[in-house]
Design a protein that fits this description.
Pfam families: TfoX_N. By secondary structure, this protein is an alpha+beta fold. It is 26% helix and 35% strand. The protein is globular, with a radius of gyration of 13 Å.
Length: 113
């Protein structure tokens, strides 16, 4: 049984179809889209994780339905969670996907084990 929003995952996948190096991995109770070997976007049950430039957070105050991700009690720099409530509109989904893709070339890859 999948625990992530399959409809949202398909909509994200459609937006990444033109990119050469995309890999889908089931992790963190969801589906993560790796772009160029780096975590880029994740889809969970009722939200989407977006990896973006941490310096852009103050520019997002006008956007609804997002919050900085927290692991334990520490804010995760450069990761936000966007509620599926605002992602029903294609223009909103496009905005967040494009933000993640714009940052991807500058994102650090995880260390290979």
């Amino acid at each position: 049984m999948r625990v992530y929003n399959e409809t949202l995952a398909l909509r994200v996948a459609e937006r990444l179809i033109h990119i050469q190096d995309v890999e889908e991995k089931e992790m963190f109770s969801g589906l993560v889209f790796m772009v160029n070997g780096k975590m880029c976007i994740g889809v969970s049950k009722n939200s989407m994780m977006v990896r973006l430039d941490p310096n852009t957070l103050e520019n997002l105050s006008h956007k609804d339905g997002w919050q900085q991700m927290v692991m334990g009690s520490r804010p995760m720099k450069g990761y936000v969670s966007v509620s599926e409530d605002v992602l029903g509109r294609n223009d909103e989904l496009d905005f967040w996907v494009n933000l993640a893709l714009a940052f991807n070339p500058f994102a650090k890859a995880s260390k290979k084990k």
